[in-house]
């Protein structure tokens, strides 16, 4: 879970998650929403994938990214256990 919190500790990665909340996107579509290089976006996507926050699927010549809602549900359930 440590890696999950590290992944969420970056504004760019949180913005990527917000984008994927609305629809699945490929890396180019995601990069178009930012003013940073495509390799930087790829790096952020890799970190999000390693934290299991997003899932990638090859569709034709593109890789499409989607939000992994099950990991978010697990995270929310854990956070709720902390409430007394």
From TrEMBL:
Keywords: DNA-binding, Transcription, Transcription regulation. Pfam families: HTH_5. It comes from the Bacteria. Residues 1-84 form the HTH arsR-type domain. Signal peptide: none annotated. This is Transcriptional regulator, ArsR family. It comes from Zobellia uliginosa. The lineage of its organism: Bacteria, Pseudomonadati, Bacteroidota, Flavobacteriia, Flavobacteriales.
């Amino acid at each position: 879970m440590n890696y999950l919190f590290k992944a969420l500790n970056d504004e760019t990665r949180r913005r990527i998650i917000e984008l994927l909340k609305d629809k699945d996107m490929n890396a180019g579509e995601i990069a178009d929403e930012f003013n940073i290089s495509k390799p930087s976006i790829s790096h952020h996507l890799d970190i999000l994938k390693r934290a299991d926050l997003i899932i990638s699927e090859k569709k034709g010549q593109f890789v499409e990214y989607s939000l992994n809602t099950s990991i978010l549900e697990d995270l929310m359930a854990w956070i709720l256990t902390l409430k007394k």
